Structures are given as structure tokens and as C-alpha cells.
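Worked example

This section walks through a single chain of length 93. The input is the sequence exactly as stored; nothing has been trimmed or padded.
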Amino acid sequence: MSSSPAALPLVLKRLQARTVAEPIIATVALMAESGLPCFGRGAPVENLRKRFHLEMTERQAAQFMRQTILDAYQKWTTSFYDALQNVQNKIPF
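Given that input, the structure is written out below as C-alpha cells.
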């Protein structure tokens, strides 16, 4: 699998975030009963935990992240979402 060199910093940052996943999850869990809209549906704390992919080794997680970035890069929906964010929220891409 080939990967863009631009993906490397994203993968490294994601791997770094995994090293402090439990404190991040614990902090979010404290807010779960706050009544904020972002906690109103589904299982936000459990979903956050899943996003860290803590069941994977570091190598597996890095490969998964590279593949996810590559998949997103090749989808028209990613470009559309980026353009929408630029128009609505002035977030450049």
C-alpha cells in the first residue's frame, strides 16, 4: 500500500494521541451527563474509545490510519465536505 508523505504527520499525531487515550476518554466521560447537545445521541464515550482503536497494535493502528487517509483522499465526498466547510465556515482546504 502506498501512502502520501503528507499522511505521515497525521498518522504520527494520531499514534501520539493513542498514548493518552485513557485520560482523554476519562475527561470526556466527565462531560457525558452535562446535557450538551454533542452528548445527546448514541454512546459518545464508547464511540470515542472505538476511534482510538486501542485493540490494535501500534503498527496495525498506523496501517489502519494510512488506509483511512488514502480512502478519504480518493472519495469525492471528502472534497465536497471540504468545499462546504470552506463556504460555510471559512475553513480553507
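What to look for: The two ends are 25 Å apart (CA to CA).
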